[in-house]
Write a structure and sequence with these properties.
The protein folds into 2 domains: 162 residues, 3-Layer(aba) Sandwich (Rossmann fold), CATH 3.40.50.720; 117 residues, N-(1-d-carboxylethyl)-l-norvaline Dehydrogenase, domain 2 (Orthogonal Bundle). It is globular. It is of the alpha/beta class and 296 residues long. The longest helix has 29 residues.
């Protein structure tokens, strides 16, 4: 069934970064009635998006951001984020006072605070807003968005962001969204390893694991990972979903923050090394549920 959108005023927006997440997220903004200008490092991807969704494309982040009330972004890491925000061609240079930059990249809390300060110096709002739900959530418009920033900026962008989300929540000042995403990834790492061990154990024991998951999925062991990745883990199918490379990047951010704040993450550190094993085997682009392959 096609996604339906709550009626909201049309806004002039930009979207920077048309990867597996950004491409459909920007599409939902256009479908919801917003005037969207896109930028992507590979211009052909921008042209493809415009052909599909309408709107316009720009050659630089600054040009895309010019005239936009809200500038959304979803890129790879801290350095990518700096490259599209600061400098003569960066989005901040093109944004008008009072506009708001919304960063959906999974990045460090430190860079969120750094860029929030740089934006404030220009009279620009900044919301760090990493997402959970993967490419399927982006495609279906059902992402969960964890936000850090001031309440006024959050309130201004939330109605537009709901075009691609089922929940958009303010969790505290700048950096809080990124910290919440770290909590999310820490929890997932342990869940996927536990599910891997459970399925591998059940298969060694000769159980019909599809039937077992159906039963225990109705009880206390139930989780999104069990419901959505358990069946494909049983079949050893991993050519989709959230890549091992991306998870290692995210866990690295969390482990670095833990070293800074003194939190102890022994299971997370162990699972991070298990993912490193998968990378060494060439499984960089396989879904994170491929952890079970280490147990075969």
């Amino acid at each position: 069934m096609p996604r339906t959108y709550d009626p909201v005023p049309s806004r002039a927006v930009a979207f920077l970064g048309l990867g597996v997440m950004g491409y459909p997220m920007a599409g939902h903004l256009a479908a919801a009635g917003h005037k969207v200008t896109v930028y992507n490092r590979t211009a052909a991807k921008s042209a493809e998006w415009v052909k599909t969704h309408g709107g316009a494309s720009a050659a630089t982040p600054a040009a895309a951001a010019s005239g936009a009330e809200i500038v959304f972004a979803c890129v790879g890491n801290d350095d990518d984020l700096r490259s599209i925000t600061v400098g003569a061609d960066g989005a901040f240079a093109g944004m008008k006072r009072g506009a708001i930059f919304v960063d959906h990249t999974t990045a460090s809390a430190a860079v969120a605070r750094e860029l929030a300060e740089a934006a404030a110096a220009r009279g620009i709002g900044f919301v760090d807003a990493p997402v959970s739900g993967g490419n399927l959530g982006a495609t279906n418009g059902t992402l969960t968005v964890m936000c850090g920033g001031d309440a006024a900026s959050f309130d201004a962008v939330r109605p537009a962001a709901m075009a691609f989300a089922k929940a958009v929540t303010l969790l505290g000042p700048s950096g809080s969204g990124q910290l919440a995403k770290m909590v999310n990834q820490i929890a997932i790492a342990g869940l996927v390893q536990g599910l891997s061990e459970a399925i591998a154990f059940g298969q060694k024991a000769g159980l019909d694991m599809k039937a077992v998951l159906e039963v225990i999925g109705k009880g206390a062991a139930q989780s999104w990972q069990m419901d959505n990745r358990g069946p494909t883990m049983i079949e050893r199918k991993f050519d989709f979903g959230f890549a091992v490379d991306w998870m290692r990047k995210d866990l690295g951010i969390a482990l670095e923050e833990a070293r800074r704040n003194g939190a102890r993450l022994p299971v997370t550190a162990l699972v991070d090394q298990f993912y490193a094993d998968l990378q060494a085997r060439g499984g960089n682009r396989a879904d994170t549920s491929s952890l079970i392959e280490r147990l075969d």
